[in-house]
Inverse folding.
């Protein structure tokens, strides 16, 4: 968790010279991506409720969540961090932050692997859910599909 917080802080504040400038349309797209990321992160946190924890290990009272934003992607909070982080990198124009974002991607990928091992062991239906739901990159068609 400490490393994740340091990487997120690095995305926001790592110094370095600007290597590129974003045109107006890219600034607008990046701002929109940050807004979407915030909504997805909040939706994921609210859906977890009391099961939300900073650790990749599920809390004792956690339940398997497969509806709402969890129907679109297995790890929506991590997805939101990556989307928002990528937008911040684009807006910053700093190459050093690209490396921080890549380190964050690697860390979150490892966290998903650990978390999924635990969820598979704890919830009998997790393997089926995981087979049908993307890990980090949402499938918009799956999000709009109505449950049977």
């Amino acid at each position: 968790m400490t490393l994740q917080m340091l990487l997120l802080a690095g995305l926001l504040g790592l110094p370095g010279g600007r290597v590129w400038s974003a045109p107006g349309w890219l600034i607008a797209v990046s701002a929109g991506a940050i807004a979407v990321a915030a909504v997805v992160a909040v939706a994921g946190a609210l859906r977890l409720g009391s099961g939300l924890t900073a650790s990749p290990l599920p809390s004792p009272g956690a339940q398997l969540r497969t509806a709402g934003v969890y129907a679109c992607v297995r790890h929506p909070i991590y997805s939101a961090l990556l989307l928002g982080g990528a937008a911040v990198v684009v807006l910053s124009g700093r190459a050093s932050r690209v490396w921080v974002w890549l380190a964050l991607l690697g860390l979150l990928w490892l966290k998903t692997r650990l978390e999924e091992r635990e969820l598979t062991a704890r919830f009998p239906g997790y393997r089926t859910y995981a087979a049908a739901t993307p890990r980090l990159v949402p499938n918009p068609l799956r999000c709009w599909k109505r449950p049977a």
In short: The chain has a mean pLDDT of 91. The helical segments are 2-13, 24-48, 76-92, 95-122, 126-132, 140-144. The longest helix spans residues 95-122.
